[in-house]
Design goal:
The chain has three domains: 62 residues; 31 residues, no CATH class; 113 residues. With 239 residues, it is mostly helical. It is built from five helices and no strands.
Length: 239
């Protein structure tokens, strides 16, 4: 007959069974918690994917709508421009002329001066203005010196002119007096030739030829003096 188990042995077996049952329950709880975590993560990922898919579709739809709007506005602008050009050729030519005009240096400088030029700082404008003032002062000083020289030369020339005018008047009077004297001698030579014609002989003929040559010389001299007197008179000098 077998021996009955002792109380200590029964107590130890019961304790081991309780420990195994507790460990099994803990493992089961951990497994269920892990499954719930995986399921929840999967659901969250699916919801995020669906949301991203819908957002992407909305963005692409909005982008396509805006592109069509911009494309429509662009082609409408070109169409309106072509229609305006066809309906108003004069205005189109005017715009072209204005654009060409703005390409020129003068109008471009004028436009820059009244637009971008106004954006310059006050300091830069002051420095530029100060430089221009200095250059202007230098130019004025040079002009003053040159004017002084020219005035001095004009004064001397005026004196020389007055002196020359007086001298020219004297010379004109003397030339006129000489021309009168030449005319008188010429007249005497003509009278002498007339007298020699009345005297016969070779000597009288030789003298008449000599007097005729002198008379011709006097006539040319008188003509030269008369031209000189006329030229002096044309200068405004009384003779």
């Amino acid at each position: 007959m077998a021996d009955a188990p002792t109380p200590s042995t029964s107590s130890s077996s019961a304790s081991n069974e309780n420990g195994a049952s507790s460990s099994s329950s803990t493992i089961t709880s951990m497994t269920e918690g892990l499954q719930r975590t995986v399921i929840n993560s999967t659901d969250s990922a699916l919801r995020s994917a669906r949301s991203l898919h819908h957002s992407s579709q909305d963005f692409l739809s909005h982008l396509a709508s805006n592109y069509k709007t911009f494309e429509h506005a662009f082609f409408n602008t070109i169409k309106e421009g072509l229609m305006t050009t066809a309906e108003h050729p004069t205005a189109t030519v005017g715009v072209g002329v204005a654009a060409t005009f703005l390409l020129l240096r003068g109008p471009r400088r004028f436009l820059f001066r009244h637009t971008l030029g106004r954006l310059q700082s006050e300091e830069a404008q002051f420095v530029k203005a100060e430089k221009n003032v200095k250059e202007l002062s230098t130019s004025v000083d040079l002009m003053k010196k040159e004017s002084r020289k020219l005035l001095e030369r004009a004064t001397l020339a005026e004196k020389d002119m007055k002196y020359g005018h007086t001298e020219l008047m004297k010379a004109g009077s003397q030339i006129q007096h000489l021309a009168k004297s030449v005319y008188k001698v010429e007249a005497q030579a003509v009278d002498l030739m007339d007298n020699l014609r009345e005297i016969p002989g070779r000597e009288a003929l030789r003298l008449r030829a000599e007097v005729a040559s002198i008379a011709s010389l006097l006539k040319r001299q008188r003509a030269f003096l008369d031209k000189r007197i006329m030229k002096i008179s044309e200068l405004g000098v009384p003779v």
